[in-house]
TrEMBL record:
Protein name as annotated: Probable beta-glucosidase G
EC code(s) of this entry: 3.2.1.21
Pfam families the record matches: Fn3-like, Glyco_hydro_3, Glyco_hydro_3_C
Natural source organism: Filobasidium floriforme
Recorded metabolic or biological pathway in which this protein acts: Glycan metabolism; cellulose degradation
Keyword entries, A-Z: Carbohydrate metabolism, Glycoprotein, Glycosidase, Hydrolase, Polysaccharide degradation, Secreted, Signal
Known role: Beta-glucosidases are one of a number of cellulolytic enzymes involved in the degradation of cellulosic biomass. Catalyzes the last step releasing glucose from the inhibitory cellobiose.
GO molecular function: beta-glucosidase activity
Domain Fibronectin type III-like, first and last residues per copy: 720-790
PANTHER family in the cross-refs: BETA-GLUCOSIDASE (PTHR42715), BETA-GLUCOSIDASE G-RELATED (PTHR42715:SF12)
SMART domains per UniProt: Fn3_like
Signal peptide: 1-18
One Gene Ontology cellular component: extracellular region
KW Secreted (keyword) present: yes
Length: 801
């Protein structure tokens, strides 16, 4: 049992229950004609140069690698036994240590003494660039202080949220390439400014957990036995690949990301980690990526196909007792020794692993000793490997509270909020409370608790000190001498109603759980199969209905990891307000109190669309089949999330970019300025070409700046997010509108005005020309729409480029 739990705990990977300890399990049944390797060697692997930023680090890495034996080089690119989720092999005679790689997107995992940050999706809901950067910079410091060289974060567009039931959407940002691109750039930079190598993941087209690997087929007794089951193939057309799925990775490369993790799924039939078209062609070629491509844990299937297809670092290799198969190690040595894989290719793999290590100065400023919870706990000496080291700073609590406040989305308010000294408050639902077993007992993936503050899997992070809403509301209620009552048993509807019926306000707390290794319940409601609920069901819908039936001032606090269907009760006359903190992290309680009591006016806006019905989302974004060779055709193309609703004229419940405030704003003086600004942000430059390109010009130069005045005409100090959407010229095949800018006016007082601006880069008005394989800005008049959400866009301006 212990070993299983620990393996599940250890990385962004599937269960290793049935895995034998050699790579035979991956060999195809000879009767199977589909190999998953059809395109593996189509495009040769580009050799790194270090690019614009890393020529010194690259030369240094190349010099050292040049002195290494084949065995030493192979050690650098093969996962090694160790306490971290991933380790490389040290080459002590050359002063190169073993590098420690550790999860994950909301904080170090598994480890102690660090912060459970708000989820990516919550951070996106702030629409605040400074908070996105500060979160990653602070998180990066915690990785550094725990001795981690390579952080397995951020998610930069895999998933992007094209499939609303995808279990891992909470780890990412906006269901939109532009928003995700902004967050990718800032979060990579934040982590790396702390001296830790960031990992952009998962490349490419990773939009479902179901059938992502051989263990996650819907029916384990399916006709496909483990020996011939293939992971789902994401079949994506070239234009969508460029305009949606590569976009965030391009921004990660521009920010100088050191590692990119390839995905579990196949792309057009070929395993992502072997796919030379996406790895050698798109990533190392077109995006000019100079770092290393590392496999997701168990994402490699064949040594030769991976090495020639562009994979540099094979993880976890020999770690976890080799339970996920070891593909490099001696197999790679043999392939190099007989010339199947060139010496040059092996050298480049090792150089690509070591270049970011030197570029970020890790060789000079030796990191503190590694301090994580070892994957093989408790056989490892936990006391020795994990002496308690506090790395959370008091200022971090202020930061994550602010992110949780500013990422809270007020969905409905009939005047019930902010609370005004209610005499009797009733708090209903387990999700208001501290959890039945604290945080340390939730397992290293959070799955034993299904708490509301963060999703599960490798994207989970243990809280240092989870401050729950019940605790914070009780504390705050003392100021007003409010009587506070509560019922935390989700199935005791009698007690819930007894408490609610007597109160002036009933706050009912529900949460939709999401985790790696499973897609969400297909209903996307608050009723779903649960590992911790009674009879295996958590029935938040019944709880809401019971409370709303008994109190005319029912406020729903609805935690959500992504799109959730609210329509069964959203118009209930007794439900006077609905507020969603999304997944707020360990300062959940204090942040919620600030918003409920109006210390802070809510300013979060949805980074995804909430539909009225599940059927309103694009159909078939999830392939759920027992087929041994599952295919997911991305037929919606670029039209996912809000674009789908626009193209098909479907009215959502709450549109992308929606969120209420306690104040009111007016938008005036839309202006444009066509002053050219060359791209100065790129730390590394991509090779993305565009039509009519002159020497020195970049796809990321700013061609136009649109601005607008936002005035707070309400009574309270508040923040407002303004959004810009581009409409391409008539006749151009593009969605009706696409997000291409946002800016946030912060803490505006009554009557105060702020000018917000939206720089429009060449790429923001370009499209991918599939015939000429180049970006192109279409001729004609563009329209820029500006307003408070994707469907409240009162102002427009036009421009031709
Ligand atoms: C971000 O961090 C910087 C540096 O610590 C700080 O000055 C700034 O106020 C922070 N911004 C926000 C929005 O928290
Ligand atoms: C996948 O196939 C589509 C359709 O043929 C094509 O447009 C796209 O470029 C292919 N992508 C890759 C990575 O092979
Ligand atoms: C090279 O070695 C590999 C691994 O041992 C083997 O599978 C392959 O057939 C060999 N190729 C040649 C050309 O000898
Ligand atoms: C574990 O490590 C601690 C601290 O180094 C040491 O005191 C203890 O004896 C070790 N326990 C075992 C079982 O090796
Ligand atoms: C919760 O309420 C249900 C329904 O009344 C009851 O059966 C169950 O025992 C309660 N659970 C606890 C832990 O009290
Ligand atoms: C996949 O199909 C299985 C079997 O029909 C079903 O139980 C499961 O809920 C489906 N999963 C999703 C995410 O729709
Ligand atoms: C609203 O609450 C009242 C109790 O105050 C209840 O009598 C009524 O039936 C509720 N309305 C609905 C539609 O449930
Ligand atoms: C101003 O804001 C309040 C609170 O959100 C809202 O109820 C009201 O409708 C708004 N008024 C206008 C004119 O938009």
């Amino acid at each position: 049992m212990r070993k299983t739990t620990a393996i599940l705990a250890a990385a962004c990977m599937g269960s290793a229950l049935a895995a034998p300890s050699n790579n035979k399990r991956y060999l195809r049944d000879p009767a199977q004609t589909v190999t998953g390797n059809e395109l593996a060697y189509e495009i040769p692997a580009p050799v790194s140069s270090g690019g614009k930023a890393w020529s010194d680090a690259h030369a240094r890495a190349k010099g050292l690698v040049g002195q290494m034996s084949v065995e030493e080089k192979v050690g650098i690119v093969t996962g090694q036994p160790g306490v971290c989720a991933g380790q490389t092999k040290a080459v002590e005679r050359l002063g190169i240590p073993s590098l420690c790689l550790q999860d994950g997107p909301a904080g170090v995992r598994p480890a102690d003494g660090h912060t459970q940050f708000p989820a990516g999706v919550t951070t996106a809901a702030t629409w605040d660039r400074e908070l996105i950067y500060n979160r990653s910079r602070t998180m990066g410091q915690e990785f550094y202080d725990l001795g981690v060289n390579v952080a397995l974060t951020p998610v930069t567009g895999g998933p992007i949220g094209a499939n609303p039931v995808m279990g891992r959407n909470f780890e990412g940002w906006w269901a939109d390439p532009y928003g995700t691109g902004i967050a990718s750039y800032l979060s990579v930079k934040g982590i790396q400014d702390a001296g830790v190598v960031a990992t952009a993941k998962h490349f490419l087209g990773y939009e479902q957990e179901t059938s992502r690997n051989i263990y996650l087929v819907p029916n384990p007794d399916s006709p496909g036995s483990l020996s011939n089951q293939l992971p789902v193939s994401s079949n994506i057309d070239d234009r969508t690949t460029h305009e949606v799925y590569m976009w965030g990775f391009a921004e990660a490369v521009r920010a100088g990301v050191g590692s990119v993790m390839c995905a579990y799924n196949r792309v057009n039939g070929t395993h992502a980690c072997h796919n030379s078209v996406i790895q050698n062609g798109h990533l190392k070629g077109e995006l000019n990526f100079q770092g290393n491509i590392m496999s997701d844990w168990g994402g490699t299937w064949d040594s030769q196909a991976a090495a020639l297809g562009g994979l540099d670092l094979e993880m976890p290799g020999l770690n976890f007792g080799g339970a996920l198969g070891t593909f490099y190690d001696t197999s790679l040595e043999a392939l190099v020794n007989n010339g199947t894989v060139s010496q040059e290719r092996l050298e480049d793999m090792a150089v690509r692993v070591l270049t970011p290590y030197f570029a970020l100065g890790q060789a000079e400023t030796a990191l503190p000793s590694v301090n994580v919870i070892p994957w093989n706990f408790p056989t490892a000496n936990l006391t020795a490997a994990n002496p308690y080291r506090l790395v959370q700073k008091p200022s971090t609590r202020t930061l994550i509270k602010q992110i949780a406040e500013d990422g809270t989305v007020l969905l409905k308010n009939n005047g019930a909020l902010p609370l005004n000294a209610p005499a009797r408050i009733s708090i209903i639902g387990s999700k208001a409370g501290p959890g039945m077993r604290g945080d340390r007992n939730c397992g290293a993936t959070g799955r034993l608790c299904e708490g509301p503050s963060l999703g599960g899997g490798s994207g989970w992070a243990q809280a240092l000190n989870y401050i729950d809403p019940l605790m914070s509301i009780r504390q705050r209620a003392l100021d007003d001498s409010s009587a506070v009552d509560w019922v935390l048993n989700d199935t005791d509807l009698t007690a819930a109603q007894y408490s609610a019926v007597q109160a002036d306000v009933a706050l009912v707390f529900v949460s939709a759980w999401a985790t790696e290794e499973a897609d969400r319940d297909p209903s996307l409601t608050y009723t779903y199969r649960s590992a911790v609920g009674r009879n295996g069901v958590y029935d938040g819908e019944a709880l809401i209905q019971a409370v709303a039936a008994s109190n005319p001032n029912t406020i729903v606090v609805a935690y959500m990891p992504g799109a959730t269907i609210l329509d069964a009760w959203i118009d209930h006359p007794n439900i006077t307000a609905v507020v969603s903190p999304l997944q707020p992290g360990e300062q959940a309680g204090p942040a919620l109190v600030s918003v409920l009591y109006g210390d802070v006016s809510p300013s979060g806006k949805l980074p995804f669309t909430i539909a009225k019905n599940i059927g309103d989302y694009p159909p078939d974004t999830l392939t759920n089949t027992t087929d041994i060779n599952p295919q997911n055709d991305f037929t919606e193309g670029v039209n996912f999330d809000y674009r789908w609703f626009d193209v098909n004229n479907i009215t959502p419940r709450y549109e992308f970019g929606y969120g209420l405030s306690y104040s009111n704003f007016t938008y005036n003086n839309l202006a444009k300025d066509a002053t050219f600004h060359a791209d100065v942000e790129a730390i590394q430059t991509t090779n993305e070409k565009f039509k009519g390109q002159n020497q020195g010009e970049s796809l990321y130069d700013t061609l136009l700046t649109v601005s607008v005045d936002v005035k707070n005409v309400g009574d309270v100090v508040a923040c407002e997010v303004a959004q810009l959407y581009v409409q391409y010229p008539d006749g151009v095949d593009q969605p009706p509108k696409q997000l291409r800018g946002f800016d946030k006016a912060k803490r505006l007082g009554h009557g105060e005005t702020k000018t917000l601006s939206f720089p429009i880069r060449r790429k923001d008005v370009a499209m991918w020309n599939v015939v000429e394989q180049i970006w192109e800005v279409p001729q004609g008049q563009f329209t820029f729409h500006v307003g408070s959400s994707s469907r409240q866009l009162p102002l427009t301006t036009t421009h031709s480029f």
